[in-house]
């Protein structure tokens, strides 16, 4: 639909194609070849296909645009149909598409030599067995159906080979590769509505799912309350550390006694870890909490006074020797029930979903020429718990079975507590928001390209990546 010049040193790029079965309400079926286009804001179908299937047609005045907002021949008709799902035949994909005389040139533009030798394709059920041979494109499936057809799994090829994305039609191949000839142009398939320009539509497509700054009607009452709790409590301490309060459920209950359970779990864990020889590693991990002032010892009586609530978190160790940042992770069991059957997780809200879908993360990552990755060490432990909520994060510990058990409480967010992932992600974005004027580019990346503590991003050039890296480091130093 639109052509853009290709750099001479660029490798030719394969685009995702699939052979699918289209079904009409009248019972007609037809196999067609489609382009799965992450850059198209709408879906297109060749008019000849709609006519042959007898699909219903509805008038429209939609204007189609290509690169740089260049207007194309307008679409006068639109239609709807179903596409068979290879893995779930009883769950077809519904598609709405604009009708056009010509969807695209043949793809790929030339045969891909040596594709049959790519090892990573062995055993894969391909969506388009003829992906490496030029062929007619009957339809474009754009972002309006992307979420329903792309599955989470991927398989990467070797050096200068493409990769495979699993779809409901099979495995689709895309990416730069050797073995194909280039005509120094690439295809950009982009459509837009008449009242919006191209930039706005692309912004909408790549926009990460996030909790709105104002209460949204799509959130339920509990989620709205969690948003309000975060908004009202989050603040930056004089030393730069951020502090948050724990969001409660609307109908939260009082907690029963929990210290005895925590003590029993500690004794059992002592025996099992000592038997395996892992107790010293776990002990040092707990002591590190105290040394870093992430936890503090309690000297007051362990009783409930008035409305004040206490909760003791049983804990266990998760060891991951391959980790470059945290070899031993202490996980607290906030779902352990107290004497009245309630647990900490049963009275806390997990908050609304603030994560981008993993497929969206991967698709955004694919647009970068230079990859950038990062990991925030001990992300949860970078955030302070409000003083009024710390007694809900108590735990018992002793360095040796010969010592008496002592009481402690966490001052930082912890693993195992249902609200921690939401609070950590929201706080990270709050840091980006608060310091946007200082680090605008880095702040945008933090807002969109983090999945909990993992960054998956990139730039177009090595130079821009080298300029961005110190900005990201400075911004994240404020968080951590």
Describe the protein.
There is one protein chain. 25% of the residues lie in helices and 23% in strands. The protein is built from eleven helices and 24 strands. The chain has helices at 47-53, 143-149, 198-206, 221-233, 259-276, 279-291, 344-347, 358-365, 420-434, 440-449, 462-479; strands at 2-5, 13-14, 17-23, 29-36, 43-46, 58-59, 77-83, 93-100, 139-141, 150-156, 163-167, 170-176, 185-188, 235-236, 242-244, 295-297, 315-319, 328-332, 370-375, 384-385, 394-397, 406-410, 450-451, 454-459. The chain has a six-stranded mixed beta barrel. A four-stranded antiparallel sheet has the order 2-12-11-10. 32% of the residues are buried.
Which stretches of 5+ consecutive residues score pLDDT under 50?
Answer: 1-8, 184-198, 204-217, 302-306
* Average predicted local confidence, pLDDT: 83
Major β-sheet strand ordering: 3-4-9-5-8-7
Largest sheet: 6 strands, mixed, barrel
- Derived structural class: alpha+beta
Number of helices: 11
């Amino acid at each position: 639909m639109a052509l853009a010049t290709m750099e001479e040193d660029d490798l030719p790029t394969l685009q995702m194609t699939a052979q699918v079965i289209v079904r009409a309400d009248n019972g007609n079926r037809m196999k067609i070849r489609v382009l799965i286009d992450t850059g198209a804001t709408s879906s297109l179908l060749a008019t000849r296909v709609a006519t042959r299937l007898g699909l219903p047609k509805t008038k429209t005045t939609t204007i189609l645009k290509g690169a740089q907002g260049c207007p194309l021949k307008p679409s006068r008709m639109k239609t709807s149909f179903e596409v068979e799902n290879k893995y779930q035949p009883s769950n077809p994909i519904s598609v709405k598409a604009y009708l056009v005389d010509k969807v695209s040139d043949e793809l790929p533009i030339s045969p891909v030599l040596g594709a049959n030798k790519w090892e990573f394709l062995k055993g894969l059920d391909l969506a388009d067995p003829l992906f490496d041979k030029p062929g007619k494109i009957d339809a474009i499936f754009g972002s309006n159906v992307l979420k329903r057809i792309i599955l989470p799994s991927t398989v990467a090829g070797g050096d200068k080979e493409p990769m495979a994305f699993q779809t409901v039609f099979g495995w689709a191949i895309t990416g730069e590769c050797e073995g194909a000839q280039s005509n120094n142009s690439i295809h950009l398939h982009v459509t837009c509505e008449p009242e919006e320009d191209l930039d706005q539509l692309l912004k909408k497509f790549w926009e990460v799912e996030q909790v709105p700054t104002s209460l949204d009607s799509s959130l339920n009452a509990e989620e709205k309350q969690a948003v309000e709790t975060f908004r009202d409590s989050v603040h930056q301490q004089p030393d730069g550390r951020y502090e948050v309060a724990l969001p409660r459920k609307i109908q939260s209950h009082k907690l029963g006694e929990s210290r005895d359970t925590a003590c029993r779990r500690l004794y059992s864990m002592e025996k099992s870890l000592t038997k395996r020889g892992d107790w010293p590693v776990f002990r040092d991990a707990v002591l590190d909490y105290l040394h870093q002032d992430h936890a503090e010892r309690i000297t007051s009586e362990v009783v409930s006074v008035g409305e004040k609530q206490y909760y003791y978190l049983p804990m266990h160790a998760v060891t991951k020797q391959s980790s470059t940042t945290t070899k031993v992770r202490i996980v607290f069991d906030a779902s352990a029930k107290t004497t009245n059957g309630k647990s900490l997780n049963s009275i806390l809200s997990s908050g609304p979903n603030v994560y981008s879908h993993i497929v969206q993360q991967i698709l955004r990552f694919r647009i970068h020429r230079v990859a950038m990755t990062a990991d925030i060490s001990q992300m949860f432990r970078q955030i302070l718990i409000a003083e009024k909520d710390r007694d809900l994060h108590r735990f018992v510990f002793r360095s040796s079975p010969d010592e008496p058990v002592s009481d402690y409480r966490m001052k930082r967010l912890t693993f195992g507590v249902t609200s921690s992932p939401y609070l950590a992600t929201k706080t990270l974005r709050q840091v980006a928001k608060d310091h946007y004027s200082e680090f605008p580019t880095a702040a945008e990346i933090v807002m969109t390209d983090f999945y909990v503590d993992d960054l998956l991003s990139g730039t177009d050039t090595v130079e821009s990546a080298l300029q961005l890296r110190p900005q990201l480091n400075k911004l994240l130093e404020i968080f951590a």
